[in-house]
């Protein structure tokens, strides 16, 4: 096996040995070989230069593409962030420049958070690339702030003008002063650049016309019409067509207000004719709506109605023939001095007498309720329901005393008839029949007239027969058959007193005349 040489196998060589031709290299040989190697290496480098440059260019392009993509991504994120921030932005009254500056500061803070962790040169490059995004959205905020400030100024101006118009409505005689205040406000906005002169002219004209029109309409029609006809508002309106329109409108309003005033006065006259407890008087509003002459006429009519009502009160329950005789005595003799006053008195007496006789025939049972004997009888019936028939008899007797024919007399008032029928309709069939029996017992001998009146008002003939005490034996046999059929053949039994009272409680306790006391 061959042996690997070691240091022990190498013998030192002296300096003289190195000069031997067999050992020493020729200088020429050494320089040529080195030169050839260097030349070949240089040629290799020259040949490899285009390839190296191409590699460098590709690397630079790759880095540029990465930076461009990264820049686009960052800008897109910043645009989305800025868009959301603009969407959430609310105007706080700041000037446009300050609002934009504050928005840019907040957006830069958000960007710093996004770029955190990148190298400083990358962060700076990203900020340079997104500078256009920040500037664009900052300008957008400045525009929005400017628009919001203009809108707020406009709303404040319009609110002030509305307040001036409202004040003119409350104080129409001072309308000129409030109009001047509004004009001064609009002029100040022209000086501030918020309005152009043309805009000022249009807005001021609309404001003044609206203010004076509202002030005119708020005045009483009679005063407004007089002021328009006298030319008080000619300079303020500065428009003959508008003046004619307002004058026509005011005249129509005047007619309407006077009609309303007369109607209100007529209501008071009717109240006096029907014996109103308190002396009716024209309200201040009604007096404003009416002309002075109409107010005086209405007051005289109310006074006359009260006076004649008191004079006719003693005839309220007198027979119709006696009433007519007394009316002939009350009519004054002809006299040229007070002919108009006597004519009004006669007319008032005629109206009240006709109304009194008409009320007698319209609801005679209700008409006699205030007669002392009848009122006392129904008060006793309220305490003791067994006396209800006697109370009804007292009412019928009072109607006969008035001179009403038997066909005109009524045992029940209109309200009582409606209430009894409504109560019966609310009951089941069996309880309805039981209730009719209870009504028969309550009204006693007067159940016949009551049954006839209820039948006339809509009660069925069979049920009227059940209610009429004169046909009670036949009625109760029919009742037994009806109950027997309804119970499907079960043994019929007479209704108990307690069940009858329970079934008809709201019929017999809800009668208006029984509760009158």
Quick recap of the structure?
It is elongated and about 180 Å long.
Largest sheet: none
- The number of distinct β-strands equals 0
> What are the low-pLDDT stretches, counting only 5+ consecutive residues below 50?
472-477, 487-511
How many helices? The count is 23
Whole-angstrom Rg: 57 Å
The shape, in one word, is: elongated
Q: Strand content of the residues, in percent?
A: under 5%
Mean pLDDT: 75
* Termini Cα gap: 153 Å
Order of helical and strand elements? HHHHHHHHHHHHHHHHHHHHHHH
Structural class, judged by helices and strands?
mainly alpha
Helix content: over 70%
Structure description:
With 517 residues, the protein is mainly α. It is 74% helix and 0% strand. It has 23 helices and no strands. Helix 1 crosses helix 2 and helix 1 runs parallel beside helix 4. The chain is elongated and about 180 Å long. The termini are far apart. About 6% of the residues have low confidence.
Task: Provide tags for this entry.
23 helices
Task: Draw up the topology in text.
Elements: H1 27-88, H2 96-115, H3 120-129, H4 131-170, H5 175-192, H6 197-218, H7 221-229, H8 234-237, H9 240-273, H10 284-289, H11 292-312, H12 320-330, H13 339-362, H14 364-367, H15 372-383, H16 388-401, H17 414-425, H18 429-443, H19 447-457, H20 461-467, H21 472-486, H22 497-503, H23 505-508
Helix pairs in contact: 1-2, 1-4, 2-4, 4-5, 4-6, 5-6, 7-9, 9-11, 11-13, 12-13, 15-16, 18-20, 18-22, 19-20, 20-21
């Amino acid at each position: 096996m061959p042996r690997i040489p070691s240091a022990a196998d190498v013998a030192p060589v002296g300096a003289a040995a190195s000069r031997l031709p067999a050992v020493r290299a020729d200088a020429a040989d050494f320089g040529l070989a080195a030169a050839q190697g260097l030349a070949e290496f240089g040629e290799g480098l020259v040949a490899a230069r285009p390839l190296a440059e191409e590699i460098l260019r590709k690397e630079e392009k790759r880095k540029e593409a990465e930076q461009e993509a990264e820049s686009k991504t960052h800008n897109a994120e910043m645009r989305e962030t800025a868009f959301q921030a603009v969407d959430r932005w609310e105007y706080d009254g700041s000037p446009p420049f300050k609002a934009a500056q504050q928005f840019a500061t907040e957006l830069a803070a958000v960007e710093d958070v996004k770029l955190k962790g990148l190298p400083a040169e990358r962060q700076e490059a990203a900020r340079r690339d997104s500078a256009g995004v920040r500037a664009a959205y900052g300008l957008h905020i400045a525009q929005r702030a400017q628009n919001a400030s203009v809108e707020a100024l406009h709303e404040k101006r319009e609110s002030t003008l509305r307040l001036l118009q409202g004040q003119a409505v409350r104080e129409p005689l001072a309308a000129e002063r409030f109009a001047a205040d509004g004009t001064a406000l609009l002029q100040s906005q022209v000086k501030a650049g918020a309005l152009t002169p043309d805009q000022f002219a249009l807005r001021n004209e609309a404001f003044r016309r609206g203010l004076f029109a509202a002030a005119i309409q708020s005045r009483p029609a009679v005063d407004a019409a007089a002021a328009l006809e006298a030319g008080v508002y000619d300079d303020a309106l500065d428009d003959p067509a508008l003046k004619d329109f307002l004058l026509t409108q005011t005249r129509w309003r005047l007619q309407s207000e006077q009609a309303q005033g007369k109607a209100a006065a007529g209501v008071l006259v009717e109240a006096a004719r029907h014996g109103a407890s308190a002396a009716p008087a024209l309200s201040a509003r009604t007096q404003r709506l009416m002309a002075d002459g109409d107010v005086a006429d209405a007051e005289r009519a109310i006074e006359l109605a009260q006076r004649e009502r008191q004079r006719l009160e003693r005839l309220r329950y007198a027979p119709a023939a006696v009433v007519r005789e007394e009316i002939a005595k009350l009519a004054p003799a002809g006299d040229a001095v007070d002919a108009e006053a006597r004519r009004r008195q006669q007319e008032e007496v005629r109206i009240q007498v006709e109304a009194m006789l008409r009320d007698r025939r319209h609801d005679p049972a209700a008409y006699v309720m205030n007669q002392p004997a009848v009122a006392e009888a129904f008060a006793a019936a309220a305490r003791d329901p067994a006396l209800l028939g006697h109370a009804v008899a007292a009412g019928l007797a009072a109607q006969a005393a008035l001179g009403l024919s038997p066909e005109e007399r009524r045992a029940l008032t209109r309200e009582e008839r409606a209430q009894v029928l409504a109560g019966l309709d609310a009951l089941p069939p069996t309880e309805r029949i039981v209730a009719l029996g209870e009504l028969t017992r309550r009204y006693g001998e007067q159940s016949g007239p009551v049954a006839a009146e209820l039948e006339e008002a809509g009660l069925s003939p069979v049920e009227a027969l059940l209610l009429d005490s004169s046909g009670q034996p036949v009625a109760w046999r029919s009742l037994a058959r009806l109950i027997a059929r309804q119970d499907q053949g079960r043994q019929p039994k007479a209704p108990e007193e307690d069940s009858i009272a329970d079934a008809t409680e709201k019929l017999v306790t809800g009668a208006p005349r029984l509760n009158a006391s």
